[in-house]
Design goal:
The protein is 46% helix and 16% strand. By secondary structure, the chain is of the alpha/beta class. Helix 2 links the parallel strand 2 and strand 3. The chain is globular. The mean pLDDT is 96. The relative contact order is 0.16. The protein has a single domain, classed as TIM Barrel (Alpha-Beta Barrel), CATH 3.20.20. It has a 9-stranded parallel sheet. It contains 8 helices and 9 strands.
Length: 208
């Protein structure tokens, strides 16, 4: 039986560490790994993202899927592949970028806001889709989009909190990308741990 072309980690919650600095990276990534996260992205508009992603890959790349977010240029796909990153998360749908990531044996999760974008991304080889910004469209849009798509994993990204995560899961998302509610630049590691646990608890309760 052929393996699925889609991607969903054991815990389908993607930690987004936007704005993290290299000197903070290892402590926060370790905290997330210890809580049980399987996928972590460092957006490319973070300071010195190359160093941060390189550190994360070297120390945790054999345990979790590390990658870059807000990836909009094909050359950045190549740079991330050279760092050993395995995950590409984009805010938009660009078939050429998706195909480049696939050619590098990377997982790519592009952002979509319409059924047309979703099918274009799938035709280019995307293994999962993120609905972005999810808070603008809401769970009803997720439900409608889910009805016309193949069984590709959908992630809600943008404005997802522990309080509303369950509604998106119920509507048809397998998980979510977690941004400023999970991590803000220079916050204490203890805050990252507390928020990570809150999200995991909500996810587990919704899946029960």
């Amino acid at each position: 039986m052929p393996s699925s072309p889609y991607w969903m980690p054991a815990l389908p919650l993607i930690a987004i560490l936007r704005g993290i600095r290299p000197d903070e990276t290892l402590a926060h990534v370790e905290a997330l790994v210890d809580v049980g996260f399987d996928a972590i992205e460092i957006p490319l508009n973070s300071p010195d993202w190359q160093t941060s992603i390189g550190l994360a890959v070297r120390h945790f790349g054999d345990r979790v899927c590390i990658g870059g977010g807000t990836v909009v240029r094909i050359e950045d796909v190549d740079a991330l592949a050279a760092l050993g990153a395995r995950l590409i998360v984009a805010p938009n749908t660009r078939p050429a970028l998706i195909r480049q990531a696939i050619s590098k044996n990377m997982i790519v999760v592009p952002g979509v806001a319409t059924p047309s974008e979703a099918f274009d991304a799938l035709d280019a080889g995307a293994q999962a889709l993120k609905v972005f910004p999810a808070s603008v469209y809401g769970p009803q849009f997720i439900r409608a989009l889910r009805a016309v798509l193949p069984p590709v994993p959908l992630y809600a990204v943008g404005g997802i909190t522990p309080e509303n995560l369950g509604a998106y899961l119920k509507a048809g998302c397998v998980g979510a990308g977690l941004g400023s509610q999970l991590y803000q630049p220079q916050q204490l590691v203890s805050r990252t741990i507390a928020m990570a646990r809150a999200y995991v608890q909500t996810f587990q309760e919704s899946a029960a």
